[in-house]
Amino acid sequence: MDARKVRCREIVETDIEAVSELLTRGFAGRTRDYWTRGLHRQREREIPAGCPRYGYLLESAGLPVGVLLLLYTQRTEACASDIRCNVSSWYVEPEFRNYATLLTSMAQKHKHVTYINISPAANTWPIIEAQGFRRYCSGMLFAVPLLSRAESGATVEVVTGSTAAVAGLPPADLDRLRSHADYGCLSLVCRIGGEAIPFIMLPKRMKSGRFPMPAMQLVYCREIADFVRCARALGRFLILRGRPLVVVDANGPIAGLAGIYTETRGRKYFKGPNPPRLADLTETELVLYGP
């Protein structure tokens, strides 16, 4: 194959249908609608100036033969701004695998960006580490929040995309909860006294392993300690909706939470100047595309 016939370029809006078709071939079990919906969500969201909206593709004879999706987000916390990029779905047609490094080199070229990989297959862990990524999450806790210690007087309310205001909740938190409700997440506020504590979760069905039952994935809370405080109230709320388990990113058992910790799945990596924290998967492939 003549390398001059293969080029790497940014994905543009007119590529969406062809990229969806390529990813459908590359990922068994994912439908074309799954990819098209996620790419349309990427089209609508705000991204930092100068960053690609969708990612990059390899092109040969005018057709995409490889793709790497990237989700850029400008993050502002505690007066410090940074750019984060979720390195998402990667696929290259077998006969073009020799050119796959063109994609990875484009994906990690900005030193000021923090890159995260939240869904690496176990067989790729050594490769990711060789690329300079560091682990920030070693596994996950399958928590049964209903079995946790109760916080006196805690209540739970739902936030939707049309919620105008929540007493005691800062505008940034409300915007985050509303936008993720529109993505199909369950956005909640646990109220303890006058304190409003935000949470975002996503329905997740455990299809195999020790827990083949409906669950929720914790997408966001300010800190794990907040989830521990509100676990019993959240557990009562969720079990009425048929979701007894909550999957929580963790680096070991979490004091105050009943559940089982495992490192067989859930490992996550980052590369860049600002290490991510646990319990913040907002604006990632998990919510834009789905579990």
TrEMBL record:
Domain of life where this protein originates: Bacteria
Organism listed in the record: Rhodopseudomonas palustris (strain HaA2)
Protein name in UniProt: Acyl-CoA acyltransferase
